[in-house]
User: Fold this.
Amino acid sequence: MRNSFFQPQRQSKTGIVLLFLYNIGIVIKNLWVLIVLFFVKKEKVESWMIIVAIIAAILILIVSAILQYFHFKYYIDDENEEFVIHEGIINTSVTKIKKKNIQEVNISQPFIHRFFNIYKLEIDTPGSSEKEVKISALTKQNAIDLKKYLLTEIAVEPLEKADDVLVNEEIKQPRSIKISTASILKYGITANYVRSFLAMVSLLIYGFSELSNVLKKVEFEKQLDYDTVEAEFLAFSIPVILGIVLVVILVGIIVNAVRTMIKFFNFKITENNQSFSFEYGLFNTRNSIVNKSKVQVITETQNWIQKKMKISYVKFLQIGKNEEEDEKNVAAVPGINNLEKEKLISTIWKENPVFENALKPNFRLIIVHTFQWIVLPLILVFAIEKELFIKYWFLAVTYIVLTELFILISFRNLRLFYNERFIRLKSGIWDVDNRTFEVEKLQTVKISQYFWQRKTNLGSITFYTSAGRFKMIALNFVKLKKLLNYCIYKIETD
Assistant:
């Protein structure tokens, strides 16, 4: 029998133990310095005093956990269509969230929750970078039922009617897509090269720095000339240095692949009438909901290797979310193949966008970026340290060649596609992003033109959505005006 959330509810009783462990973690996190000093100076303290202090601390934390459990209540206010949370021991608080404002309801099972077979539920509303409400200890059935109640599009009804709706939904078997372990592994191997490499380089630099400090402080019978050791190390041949770089890259790829496998293990997508849910994770199992009607932007990311493997990374930006958010707060699917991606997108937009019209930036953008990223930095280096510039001229040449290559690739990938219903912005160098959004969901559109762009008939356009703004520059200004007028017309009529 399903639980009625129209009456005040408490968390699972096993949540008392979880709250106790949380309290211990908070104490250690905030008072670890005092705890360390206490045990370091324990010779000045009687042993019985230590035992009494530990027992007293444990009793206080247990009582605190019990009081937190009994003072925490949640329920659905049927009359006002609100989700209400009562919490607090001394300073009590009441949180009310309008049901219509609830954007996401995520269910997760962190590692420690698995020992107690309980789940954590998080409720998110637009305009907040953090979760509005967290319920730390729910049974699986209660968490699933509560999620269904909060995310259903129709008004909350009495328990009997709501049960009928849920039963009818369960009769209709939802479609599901499972991302294979092989696909997730492919994505882990082929994604985040730059981040993995920089992380490993940072770790090596830190390691060498700490090692150098230790070597300088150690007293040897024979004085060690650290400068000589450093000079001999830097005198390695080019193949050895390249080998070290290659090892660093390989280790970074392996670490990233393992991290991706742990995070996205057993990734399953389940489609319902009004939403679809993501469930994944090895140690920390997560379950998040994406409401189809609230998706503002779909970003497809793919590099050259992933294109050959026919996999990509897809993000769904909903109202109040943007690409600057932490990746754990953004719904995304890693390693999805082209066929699965088409099915997933069609569940939201009822079609897969096809574009016949496209705008590409003017070649003058290459000149601007060349001056910005090559000419200006080299002039500054030459002005500050002329001898250094002359001595390492080959590094300057390498920098010019690589940077100009990146500029040309970026220019080649920069495109604006549009049709009657959708707009897509394509950009990137190695990881190419395709951001697609519906014209009717735009908040506003702006075009601009600097005075020096009038003769060349160039300008820029900015699209404002509930999930952030997106801009593209150096486009044909006459065509931008036509696109602007059409977008404004669609926004006003819809």
